[in-house]
Each structure stands twice: as structure tokens, then as C-alpha cells.
Amino acid sequence: MWQNAPYWRIYKLDAQAYLKAFKSQRRTGNETYKMFLNKMSETFSYWQEAKGINSLQSLSDAILAEQFLQSLPDNVRSFVRARQPKSAAECAEYADLCYEVSMMSSSGNPPSKGTNGKGQWPTDHNRFGGNGRNAQYPTHDRLRSGKCSQLLIT
Questions:
Q1: Is residue 102 a part of any domain in this protein?
Q2: Fewer CB atoms < 10 Å away: N or C end of the chain?
Q3: What is the mean pLDDT of residues 4-19?
Q4: Closest Cα partner for 21 from 29, 12, 31?
């Protein structure tokens, strides 16, 4: 029986591995759609258990965090995942830290601080240069080549 079972049923994996397995599942061979749905449901349950999801709020936060991570440039995503954030809010904090490090390494100065003492993304409408690009703050392209990936070693 176990030789035909998927690896995630045999070994206890981390949440990321279960999520990857869940997202990549496809119905195969003689498997009925009911069997396939049952397999998907089981893998989803394994992901929830590994992630410690026990409420609608924690499920919502986990889905939000995953979508947020998918929206980040590769190096920022790697930086954030390396810190093993526990919530979507922590993902955003680590992404901002990566941004601030990129700003410091590109300008030699720390980013300006807002009234709450944290680095702020600019909100004024006069921040763009003549070419329509933000010369002072990095775009996704500039973040991809930024220095926050160097912090992965720590």
C-alpha cells in the first residue's frame, strides 16, 4: 500500500512542501474526480495542520501571507521566507526591512523616518523624476538587484 502512496502521506513535511504539493496536484490515470477531490482535501488538511491553522482568522492570514509573498520580487521573497514569518504582518515587516537595507546600501543613508519612527514609503505626488520613474526609491527592478539578498547569510 505505501509504495503507491504520495510522499506527503508517508513523511511528515513542512507547511511549504504541503502547499506546493497541494498546488501541483492533478488527477491521474483511473482516479475518479471524487477520489481526486478527496486527495486534494487531505493534502490541504496536512498543510493546515503543519501551518498550525485552527481558525478562520488564521486561515485567512495564511492565505494573505502566501499571496503577499508571491507578489514580491524573488530576492525579497527569499529574504522574507528565510526569516520564517508567522503572519502576513510579519511578512510585510521583513519586506520593509529588506527595502530599508536596499535604500541604505544604495544611498549610504538610512531612509527617512515617519512620525511613527518606522521607514515610510513615500506618499507625495512630487517624488517622480522626469522619466516617470521614481529616482529616489527603488522599483521592483532595483529591488531585485538590491542588497537585501546579502542578509540571507545571517
A1: yes
A2: N
A3: 70
A4: 12
Give me the domain span that covers residue 31: 2-52
Same domain flag for 105 and 146 = yes
42 shares its domain with 91:
no
> Among residues 96, 124, 126, 90, which one has the least CA distance to residue 111?
96
Contacts within 8 Å (CB) and 24+ apart, 1-10 = 6/39, 6/43, 8/43, 8/46, 9/42
* Residue that has been written with the C-alpha cell 517624488 in this structure: 127
The answer to whether the CB of 76 falls within 8 A of the CB of 139 is no
User: pTM here?
Assistant: 0.61
Would the pLDDT of 141 be above 80? Answer: no
Asked if pLDDT for residue 45 goes beyond 70, the answer is: yes
Regarding whether 88 and 135 lie in a shared domain, the answer is yes
Q: Number of structural domains, the chain?
A: 2
Query: What is the per-residue DSSP string for 12-28?
Result: ---HHHHHHHHHH----
Count other Cβ atoms within 10 Å, centred on residue 102. Answer: 25
**Cα separations in angstroms, 44 against 8, 16, 20, 95, 102:** 11, 11, 10, 27, 36
Is residue 92 over pLDDT 80? yes
